[in-house]
Design a protein that fits this description.
Layout lengths: L2 E2 L10 E4 L15 H8 L8 H4 L5 H12 L5 H18 L7 H10 L3 E6 L3 H10 L9 E3 H4 L7 H10 L6 E5 L2 H9 L3 E5 L7 H7 L2 E3 L12
Helix pairs in contact: 1-4, 3-4, 4-6, 9-10
Length: 226
């Protein structure tokens, strides 16, 4: 692990909020084509790179986009169910944790840091993946943008997670691989950790925006004190 930042003292950290895809789970490649795959399942030909279009959207926002831009007449909840049905097996049977992630989570658990997940993906699918990977017990809960009613362009899910943890913003880290999501949590007053994932093109901006930057999960440097 390469975790760098101006203030390396984290002794007072009591809580941690983790994104799932691209942060805990090595799963972003799945989302590269799922938007197009869903349209094709309906007999509709995509006319754009939907992975890029949907990058900053929740599933609910993406479903609304299908309706307004592609004429899909299904209700939003049925569109979301359709997308989830395409990816369910992958989360339940295949998606891996990022290397070194499990050991890091166990270290936080030992140190008494309260943890939860804040994700745009269906909570049941993330639950299944984390359970299969043996780390579900590290998290008190899994919060989903669809259930909260807002994407990560708004801080609602982070505020809800904070309420679940019962910690303060000043003592809570938010781990995110996506630049827009990290900026949202940082603007809301959270301490932020940018996590490298190749799906995020703005690594320079992510590193600059985050309080700390994590290039991988393998080793915590001596300067990062709990």
């Amino acid at each position: 692990m390469n975790l760098s930042g101006e203030n390396m003292t984290t002794t007072n950290i009591k809580g941690a909020i983790f994104d799932a895809d691209g942060t805990l789970l090595d799963s972003m490649s799945l989302w590269d084509h799922i938007g197009e795959d869903y349209l094709k399942s309906l007999g509709i030909t995509p006319c754009e790179n939907l992975a890029q279009t949907f990058r900053e959207m929740s599933l609910e926002q993406s479903a609304a986009y299908y309706r307004t831009h592609y004429g899909v007449t299904l209700p939003v909840h049925e569109i979301i169910d359709g997308i989830n049905s395409l990816i369910a097996r992958y989360y339940r049977e295949e998606v891996p944790l990022k290397p070194g992630c499990a050991a890091f989570l166990r270290e936080l658990l030992i140190r008494g840091v309260r943890m939860c997940v804040a994700t745009a993906t269906d909570a049941a699918l993330i639950d299944a993946a984390l359970t299969r990977c043996g780390v579900r017990d590290c998290f008190s809960s899994i919060l989903c943008c669809t259930d909260i009613g807002a994407g990560k362009d708004r801080p609602d899910i982070y505020e809800a997670a904070l309420g679940v943890l019962g910690t303060t913003k000043e003592s809570t880290l938010v781990f995110e691989d996506a630049l827009h999501a990290l900026k949202t949590s940082k603007s809301a007053g959270f301490l932020t950790v940018g996590v490298y994932d190749p799906s995020e093109p703005g690594q320079t901006e992510l590193r600059a925006a985050a309080d700390w930057y994590l290039s991988d999960w393998h080793h915590v440097p001596d300067g990062f004190r709990w």
